Structures are given as C-alpha cells and as structure tokens.
C-alpha cells in the first residue's frame, strides 16, 4: 500500500523506464499533424474539466472501466503545464478494444496510437478541451508510476517548482517538437522518480 494505493506490480517493474520499441508501428493512421506546444501557468479550471470528462467516460464504459485517474501536470495544483488534460483509463485487457473503442469514439475521442508491448497502451486524442486519454491493461506499472509522480508533486513544493522550471527550459526552441521537449526535461523527471523511489525504500 503506497499513498493509499494497492499496486499489484513489483518494485523492479515500478522502477523500469519504458523505451519505445522501434519495431512498434504504433501510429494508427500515420503520424498525426504537428501541434504547437506551450507551457502555461496552472489553470484552476483543469480539475473541473477533468471531472466532467470523467463522468461521461464512466457512464459510457460502465463496468468495463476498472479505474480512471487524472494524471500528468494538469492534475497537480499550482504546477505549470501543457494545457492538455491527461487521463489514465484502466480496463481488464487493452487488447480487447471492443469493450471501449467504439464507446470512446462516440464521445469524440480519436485513436492515435497502439503500443501492444507497452502494457497494451492505446492513446486517444480529444480536441476541445484538448485531452490525451491513455488506455492500459490492469495491474501495469505505468499507471502506478503516473500516480506516484502526481502525488509526489502534490506534496513536494520543491520538486513541483523544479519540474515547472524544467518545463519552461525544455520548451525553448522546440515548440513544434514534442519528442525534443520530452527529451529536454527527461533528466528532471528521472531525478524526481529517483527521489520518490528512495523515499519509498526501493533504492
């Protein structure tokens, strides 16, 4: 039990960082249009926007939905973020798209990515408000990592500021390159995870 959560994954799995397998042909309909990336000050409306989205997803997925969480920087009060709501949806088996694909499409979500080797990960986009919805198979370390990172930043003012500074620095010169943006802030993310794992006694 960590931060009130019961994670069904090992410490080793929790600490492993996923590297995209180049053999994964993961874009469903080719590379999506390039988006302009921005990092903005925290918007107090983000939790309310998430709550409205969550309610609709719960209604349409019903018992097929095992868990849903607001993750990412928009879920951390006072943290600067890209104005994109990140949502983790957990189902029994993400490979079984029949239980969620058509339902999410009815709500306006569009399937962008399939990564079968990454815990069955599927990525959906929603345009207004801008949402990244991630579908994962149950008991995967990635959803646990997302919750640990979110909750750590909610209680660590120091790391929250460090991460915000890293974001503003990372965005410089790459407002149209999301991969470079993530690479630029990867050290800050890694260092924060190391502090989390040390705090938990994993290392």
UniProtKB/TrEMBL annotation:
Transmembrane portions of the chain = none
Q: What InterPro entries does this protein map onto?
A: GrpB/CoaE, NT_sf
Which key words tag this protein in UniProt?
Answer: Transferase
Q: Gene3D superfamilies of this UniProt entry?
A: Beta Polymerase, domain 2
Q: Does the keyword Cytoplasm apply?
A: no
PANTHER family membership: GRPB DOMAIN PROTEIN (AFU_ORTHOLOGUE AFUA_1G01530) (PTHR34822), GRPB FAMILY PROTEIN (PTHR34822:SF1)
Protein known as: GrpB-like predicted nucleotidyltransferase (UPF0157 family)
């Amino acid at each position: 039990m960590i931060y009130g959560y019961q994670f069904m994954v090992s410490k080793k799995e929790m600490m492993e960082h996923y590297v995209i397998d180049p053999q994964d042909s993961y874009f469903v309909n080719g590379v999506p249009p390039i988006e302009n990336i921005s990092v903005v000050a925290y918007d107090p409306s983000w939790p309310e926007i998430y709550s409205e989205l969550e309610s609709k997803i719960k209604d349409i997925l019903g018992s097929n939905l095992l868990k849903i969480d607001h993750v990412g920087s928009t879920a951390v009060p006072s943290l600067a973020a890209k104005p994109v709501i990140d949502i983790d949806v957990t189902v029994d088996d993400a490979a079984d798209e029949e239980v969620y694909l058509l339902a999410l499409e009815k709500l306006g979500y569009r399937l962008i990515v399939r990564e079968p080797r990454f815990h069955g990960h599927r990525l959906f986009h929603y345009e207004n408000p801008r949402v990244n919805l991630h579908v994962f198979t149950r008991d995967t370390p990635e959803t646990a990592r997302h919750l640990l990172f979110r909750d750590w930043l909610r209680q660590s003012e120091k790391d929250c500021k460090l991460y915000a500074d890293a974001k503003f620095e990372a965005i410089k010169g790459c407002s149209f390159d999301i991969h470079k943006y993530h690479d630029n802030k990867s050290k800050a993310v890694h260092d924060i995870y190391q502090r989390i794992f040390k705090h938990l006694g994993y290392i």
